[in-house]
Amino acid sequence: MTESTYPHFPVMMVDDEAQAITSFEMTLRSANMNNFIRCHDSRDVMSLLSSQEIEVMLLDLRMPHISGEELLPMITADYPEIPVVVVTGSNDVDTAVTCMQIGAFDYILKPVEKSRLISGVKRAVELRELHRENQLLKAHVLSDKLETPEAFSEIITTSSAMRSIFQYTEAIAGSPRPVLITGETGVGKELIARAVHTLSHRAGAFIPVNVAGLDDQVFADTLFGHKKGAFTDAREARKGLIEQANGGTLFLDEIGDLNTISQVKLLRLLQEGDFFPLGSDVTKRSDARIVVATNQDLDALQSSGRFRKDLYFRLCDHQIHIPPLRHRREDLAVLVAHFLQKAAKALNKRKPTPPEELITLLSTYHFPGNIRELESMIFDAVSSHTSGKLSMDAFKAHIVKKHPLSNIDSTASIPPQGSQVSFYDQLPTLKQIEKMLVDEAMKRSNGNQSIAALSLGISRQALNKRLKKDGQQGPPEIKA
């Protein structure tokens, strides 16, 4: 079984009593930590720090040779970035105050309570991780460079918004904490999840699973596995996906559809790092990184009581929102070229030449299915293509189906009142509104009447009549 290293740099435990260090290590290992340096001689501390990056230090105060009280100001002066957790049997208020004033991160009394030690060290680790992420993000923004652009090679984009997402993804990839990816259907949430995994350099596998529609038993069995005889058809023991993802990344898609009972089980996994296979009363541990995605509004789901607030806050330590295609229209040209090449190869055809008006047509469409819908449109068009320029007929037919002409289908749905247009105190006349709509449609279509008419939901003849009435004959119509 593959096990990843956590935390990123080791926890250094300084105590002259070997038994105390062993106890600390066993406690922290129960919280999925496995990266440690043991130091029994306080004289070795400063030389170890000069040669080894440290995540957190556990420091005893009462030691021979050099006491912890002498070491603490030396460490905080030379290595202020290292959180020092003082662990001592000295129950003296003045000593505790002095240590905190010098720069100790925390002060824990012996005998050490397990939960107290774990929470103290975890908070220190999270502080270091947050600091590193902020430094990385700042460096990325200032340099406007990607350290590993190849991790995003499957995401075709020229968008500055997407580049910012890539920079943020690089900054948080090394963190073991969960990632919440939001965005509409078809924007590429799983591709970002795979990039997070690639950049994390975790030794384990990337395991994706769509949890939409899973009842509680199927969810538990899928994630946690089962013991032989756990239920009627459980003839053999089976590992769950969380165990298969150990040391790697578990990607849970459509997390907004997870039922309430299953949410409780996922919350326990995130809080404790352990789980029970079905039919077993023995816990198993996992250090799989959890990445989740949803196209739903989790804030609204919380308000309605369909999604637990405690789970939401556990999941969104890091949050990535992917903008829809209609908000990054600069990507249309490169995506069309990419999908034309992909479709031609898949269909064993020569790559067709797209008409100049295709990008203009697509830029007027709202793409409810986003990039996945665009890919489907292009595959459909290429499948019926024979020779010459690619016909726009398949694209127009698709758009008309999603946005029917008003003179063909008067029952087509309209946006909710007040969601699209706002007015000043004095209402414009219908004639003024009509002219504004026509002008905007002609502007967006670069003067192409067919495309403008399509976006307005009227025929080209009806648009032409309105243009003539307003004295805007427009350029000669281009046959696409």
Tell me what the structure shows.
This protein has 480 residues and is an alpha/beta fold. The chain folds into three domains: 11-130, Rossmann fold (3-Layer(aba) Sandwich); 144-323, P-loop containing nucleotide triphosphate hydrolases (Rossmann fold, 3-Layer(aba) Sandwich), CATH 3.40.50; 403-480, Arc Repressor Mutant, subunit A. Helices cover 44% and strands 11% of the residues. It is built from 19 helices and 14 strands. It has helices spanning 18-29, 45-51, 68-78, 93-102, 114-143, 160-172, 189-200, 216-224, 241-244, 260-272, 298-303, 309-315, 332-346, 357-363, 370-383, 393-402, 430-444, 449-456, 460-469; strands spanning 11-14, 36-39, 56-59, 84-88, 106-109, 179-182, 206-210, 225-226, 238-239, 249-253, 274-275, 284-285, 289-294, 318-321. Strands 2-1-3-4-5 form a five-stranded parallel beta sheet, with helices on both faces. A five-stranded parallel beta sheet has the order 7-10-13-6-14. The longest helix is centred in the first third of the chain and has 30 residues, at 114-143. It is elongated and about 95 Å long. The model is unreliable at 405-414 and 475-480 (pLDDT under 50).
